[in-house]
Amino acid sequence: MALPKWLTAHAKLVYVSRSSKKEMDVVVKRISNSQKTVCIVFAKDGDLFAANSTDFTCVSMVFVLAWAQGKTEMQVPFDQILSKSNPLKLPDVSAVEAVFSFFFVARHGQNL
């Protein structure tokens, strides 16, 4: 079975903790087909989806900054991702829309 199409290197995702059910912003650092794991880097305090993250083309730069600041990494096995208990998910649509709206206003000076 293949990984979800949205699960790519440098993707901004949300990790859901099994124990606390807390949602944390993450970036996919790499996908290892040989080890069958996805390496994610945790952002701190919602860094990735904050209003100052205005350009989705800069995902790599956000990842580099998170990595350079020594953010926590985690290996998520393919088996877990492909199961019903997948801890990775796409970010909330409203969070993405808020960032897009901020970006649009900054570029065009008007609301959507």
Structural features, described:
It is a single chain. The protein has 112 residues and is of the alpha+beta class. The chain has one domain (12-108). The chain contains three helices and five strands; from the N terminus they run βββαβαβα. It has helices spanning 59-68, 78-81, 93-108, and strands spanning 12-16, 23-32, 37-42, 73-77, 88-89. The chain has a five-stranded antiparallel beta sheet. The radius of gyration is 15 Å and the shape is globular. The N and C termini lie far apart (39 Å).
Keywords:
single chain, 112 residues, alpha+beta, 3 helices, 5 strands, 27% helix, globular
Itemize the secondary structure elements and their pairings:
Blueprint: E1 12-16, E2 23-32, E3 37-42, H1 59-68, E4 73-77, H2 78-81, E5 88-89, H3 93-108
Antiparallel strand pairs: 1-2, 1-5, 2-3, 3-4
- Report the average pLDDT across residues: 75
Secondary-structure content class: alpha+beta
H/E element order: EEEHEHEH
- Strand tally is 5
Strand content: 25-35%
TL;DR of this structure?
The protein is an alpha+beta fold.
